[in-house]
């Protein structure tokens, strides 16, 4: 993956530099909830919240350990900027400490940013866009500030949408380092550019997983800039089908579509579209109806309009896509529907769709 050579001379300069890139953000989200639906964790996001400032660290002489590339600095402390949403437990920290005593398997000179995450979320569509790709904000800022473009560690096997996202965001292939997991003492890097996860709030003034509107807009703008505007032929009213998913399928999808299609809704399966096609589709969508699932990650690119998110009661009401809707000024509604079985498939009552159409058309 990297060059196999001695890291002699890599430790010169300050061992740690913290760089502020955006101050604290105040958010105030509201929800009408006309059908008096259970709020679940959405309730934690209603009212004013204050988000942590956005910053990144430049660490000298870091060791990236385990297949998840958790950073450990020269004083053998975990580099928290390599974690996602959760501190490591004591047992795992001790295991990594012992690994750090072994000689590194590889050495990478220069500045490095890693998109390989400590919680093995790289392969998830939602987590790739919300947790992994935002690390490029730090790489981009460092490049502008220091005139040095960091090389970026990425999974060796990329899904097509991952590769396309890196292309759209402007990360050339020659700047990437394919990560093949190795054991032993891990990888020694000269300079690590580590971004504090933008939706890991640590100061206690917001829910722990509140997303930064500034980071969300940065990511969406950089992804969509290279996608041409459509010619007006794309549907504006979307129903996102989970027909190909193993869980959380709408059991009465034909009945739901029979209610939606007369009003111009078109069923789409996001996994059958390229990333550019998904961006173009969502960018100008005016109405979106969807079961809770990865396809709603594309709300990153929606502007205005309205969305109805359908939750199976066995899965709980989660705030991820509510946040994206609020950040991008969508009118948001949700409904909790009866579900059954280990797959948590569910039926959508006709009145849910009818009430949505009455309010939003």
Helix percentage:
10-25%
Largest sheet: 7 strands, mixed
Mean pLDDT: 92
Radius of gyration: 22 Å
Q: What's the order of the H and E elements?
A: EEEEEHEHHEHEEHEHEHEEHEEEH
Task: Report the uncertain regions.
Answer: 1-13
User: How many beta strands in the DSSP annotation?
Assistant: 16
Coarse shape: elongated
Distance between the termini: 54 Å
Number of helices: 9
Q: In the residues, how many domains can be counted?
A: 2
Sheet-strand content, in percent, reads 15-25%
Kindly name the structural category. Answer: alpha/beta
Structural commentary:
This protein has 9 helices and 16 strands. With 361 residues, it is of the alpha/beta class. It folds into 2 domains: 16-224, no CATH class; 237-360, Rossmann fold, CATH 3.40.50. Strands 1, 4, 5, 6, 7, 8 and 9 form a 7-stranded mixed beta sheet that branches. Helix 6 runs parallel beside helix 9 (350-360). The radius of gyration is 22 Å and the shape is elongated.
Secondary structure: elements and pairs:
Elements: E1 16-22, E2 25-29, E3 47-51, E4 54-65, E5 70-72, H1 90-100, E6 106-114, H2 125-132, H3 136-146, E7 151-155, H4 160-168, E8 176-179, E9 187-195, H5 213-224, E10 237-240, H6 253-260, E11 265-268, H7 275-283, E12 287-291, E13 306-312, H8 320-327, E14 331-337, E15 339-340, E16 345-346, H9 350-360
Parallel strand pairs: 6-7, 6-9, 7-8, 10-11, 10-12, 12-13, 13-14
Antiparallel strand pairs: 1-4, 2-3, 4-5, 4-9, 15-16
Helix pairs in contact: 6-9
